[in-house]
C-alpha cells in the first residue's frame, strides 16, 4: 500500500481500490469532508471521514495546515467538481497545526504583501504552489530548448574577479576580517592575503566566461544565479536573480534576435501545453487583481489571451533612434506626462519602454542600435561611430526582458573601447585572447528568468516569483 500523489489519484479510474495519500489539510467541512493537498497539483483530493467512524479527539486535530496520512478506498465522487474521493478507513495525524497560531488563514485569502512576510510558509497557498510549479516547468523547458538545438550547458563561476557589465554593482567576496582588514601603505585593503589573493566578487553575469566556451563549443548557454548590488527597490529588480545567457559563435545581431524571439515563444508554448491548470488559476488571480483597479488602468487582455498573442505574432523590431522619435511624437511627451526627459542619447527609463510596448505597439518590441555611451564595453561598434549592435527585448507589463548584443570581435577596436571606458585591459588578457587566437563574429543575450516568470504567470512583484527573494533589506533566511 504505497503512497499515491494527489495529481495521480485525481486521474485514476475509481474501482474501490485501496490507496494511501499524504498531504496537508486545506479545509475540513461538516466534520466529514477533508480537502487534502500535497503540492502535486492545485486541486485537492476529497477525503471522506464518515460520521461516527472516527473519534472526536482525532477529528479535532484535522485543522487547516495539519498533515495527514490517509488510507482508504478510491471511489467515484457524488460531490460537485471532483470525479473521485477517498473513503477513509484510517486517518493518522502526522503533524498537528494549531489554528490559533498558524499564520496562514486560507479562508480569508491572505494578501501577497502579508505572504511575503511569511515567505517560509507561502508555498502552502494555491497561488505560490502554482507559481513554483510553473517555475520548475520553465526551467526544464529552457534546458529542453537548448538541448534540442545542440547548445551545451556551461557552468560559469559564481565567484569571479571580473565585472562583466562594467557597472560596478558587485557584492564583494572576501575572507578578510571585516573590522580590521590588512591594509597597504596607501590605506587600501590588501587583498593579496585573501583566500583568492586578489579582490573578488559575486558574478553579475556569466557572459564573459560564456564567450570563452562559445569560442570552442560554438553554442553554449548558462543558467544560474547572478548578483547585482544595485539599490533599486522596484517590483522588477532583485539583488539575486537567475539569468539564462546563450552565447553563439558565427551569429550576427539578426541571428541573435531570431533566436531570442524563438526561445521566448517556445517557453510560453511549453508552459501553455504542460501547466494549463496552473496558468488558468493564475489568470483568474490576475483577473481578480485587475478588478480592484480603476477601469482605465485595467489591461484589456487576460493572461491566457496575452500569452497566445505573444506566441502567434512576430515581435516588432525598431532601432533606438526610431524609438526616440516615437517617444518625441507621443501625446505622453507632448503633454509632459513623462517624468524623465526624452532625447537621443538617454538610457530609456521604464516609463519610456512601457509606453512603447504597452501604448504604441501593444506587443513585444526588439530595440537595436543603442548609443555606445550607455552600453557595455563588449558590444560591437557600428559603422556610424556612435551606436552599437545591441538589442533589448521589451515586453508589456515588464519593460526589459532581454539584453543582448553582437560582440566586438576586432581586437583593436575592443581594446580601444575598453580604455575609453576605464576597463582594466591588462587584467582581462584571458578575455582578449579569444580575439587574438581565431576570433570570430559572435553574439549572445541574457534573459532575466524572474522577469520571464512575471510575464508568464501574470504576477506583478518580482519577489513573488522567486522562492527566497534577495532585495534591499530582505534576507531573514
Ligand atoms: O541587460 P543585462 O544587464 O545584460 C547582461 O547581463 C548581459 N551580460 C547579457 C548577455 O548579453 N549575455 O541583464 C540581462 C537581463 C535583463 O534584460 C533583465 O531581464 C535581467 O537580466 N535583469 C534583472 N532581473 C532582475 N533583477 C535585476 N536586478 C536585474 N538586472 C538585470
Ligand atoms: Mg540591460
From TrEMBL:
It comes from the Bacteria. Keywords: Aminoacyl-tRNA synthetase, ATP-binding, Coiled coil, Cytoplasm, Ligase, Nucleotide-binding, Protein biosynthesis. It comes from Puia dinghuensis. This is Asparagine--tRNA ligase. Residues 132-469 form the Aminoacyl-transfer RNA synthetases class-II family profile domain. GO terms for cellular component: cytoplasm. It is found in: Cytoplasm. GO terms for biological process: asparaginyl-tRNA aminoacylation. The lineage of its organism: Bacteria, Pseudomonadati, Bacteroidota, Chitinophagia, Chitinophagales. CDD domains: AsxRS_core, EcAsnRS_like_N. Residues 272-299 form a coiled coil. The gene is asnS.
